[in-house]
Amino acid sequence: MAKQILVLDDDPLVLRSIEMALKQDHYGCVCASNAEEAIERAKEKDFSLIISDIRMSGKNGVEAMNDIRSMFKKDGKKDIPIIFITGFSHDAVLMNAKGVGEIILKPFDLNRFLMTVREYL
User: Fold this and answer.
1) Closest residue by Cα to residue 120 from 22, 16, 32
2) Is-contact 120 87, C-beta < 8 A?
3) Which residues pair with 37 in a beta bridge?
4) pTM for the structure as a whole
5) pLDDT tens digits, residue range 78-113?
6) Which of 29, 59, 61, 34 is nearest to 45 (CA)?
7) Alpha-carbon distance 5 to 46, whole Å?
8) How far apart are CA 65 and CA 67, in angstroms?
9) How far apart are CA 120 and CA 84, in angstroms?
10) Of 23, 46, 101, 102, which is most buried, counting CB atoms within 10 Å of its CB?
11) In contact, 12 and 24? CB cutoff 8 Å
12) What share of the chain is helix, strand, coil (3-state, %, to 5)?
């Protein structure tokens, strides 16, 4: 069975591009367009990796990942790796993300991105 990846991004084009690349690389992919949806998906299914945008309206990606990690810890589930993707290289939120997961800056090379995904899986 293919490893399952949760992808969170509020930009539909980025979300679709990542989904297509992951599926071509034979990964299962579940997409969410906001933090609340990602948290719900994380309750429903076990994932091997989460890929998340950082800056979004409402709850940002770092807050969402911290919520998911807290939920996993409370439920006795194992912690899973997180890869953040962002177009903002100088941001206070970015500094908080560094302690939570890997960071890849947009725009990114798709092959390099997939290599990073493979390293975590």
Assistant:
1) 22
2) no
3) none
4) 0.89
5) 889 999 898 766 655 555 555 667 788 888 888 999
6) 29
7) 9
8) 5
9) 13
10) 101
11) no
12) 45, 20, 35
